[in-house]
Structure formats: structure tokens, C-alpha cells
Amino acid sequence: MLARVVHLVIYTIVIAQPIFGILMVTSHDQSIPFFGLFSIPAFITLGEQVGATLGTAHAFTGWWLVLIALGVHIGGSLYHHFVRKDDVLKRMWRGRTDT
Fold it and tell me: Which of 9, 39, 54, 71 would be 31's cystine partner, CB 3.0–4.6 Å?
């Protein structure tokens, strides 16, 4: 169950992080750079306070939640390998073969 929760957190971060970043940048009335190729003009202005809050959410999901989820994920795989002595880490490394 914990593995499913950690995976859900990781997927949620992957979706939420760009949304928070885009809304944060556009709330400051700035364009969104797209990998240096082109810029998307600001399409919504939410105000400076909302932009600051979104910036905090962007930083929090970008660093702390990723580090915590990654630590739990690595810890769980090492627990399965060294304590339970099952093949979870081997399946993770090579890819799932039992499906």
C-alpha cells in the first residue's frame, strides 16, 4: 500500500509542479519560456500575493516532496532487498517480468 501511495505522490508532483510554475510566472505578468525555443505570453494574472503563494507551493513540491518521496521509495526498495530478501529490487532494476 505504501508503494502505491508513494507512486501516487510522485505522479501528483509531476503534474502539479509545471502547473504551479506556469501559474506563478503568469501571475507576475511574465511570459513562460519554453526551453529557450519560444515564449508563451502571460495568459492569467492572479496578483502578486497569489503568485508568491504559488511560488512557495512550486518550491515545496519541487524540493521537499520529491526528496521525501524519493527517500521513501529508495528505503522501501532496500528494505525489500535486504530485510525481506524478495525480488522487488531486482524487478525494479530490470523491469517487471511477471505481467
Answer: 39
pTM over 0.70: no
Instruction: Please name the residue that has the C-alpha cell 507576475.
Output: 28
More confident residue, 43 or 99: 43
pLDDT in tens, 18-28: 888 888 888 87
pLDDT value of residue 98: 59
- The alpha carbon of residue 8 and the mean position of all alpha carbons in its chain are separated, in whole angstroms, by 10
> How far is 13 from 25, CA to CA, in rounded Å?
18
How high is the pLDDT of residue 38?
A: 93
33 half-sphere exposure, CB direction, 13 A CA radius:
3
| Cα–chain center distance at 65 | 7
H/E element, 32: strand 32-34
DSSP letter assigned to residue 61: I
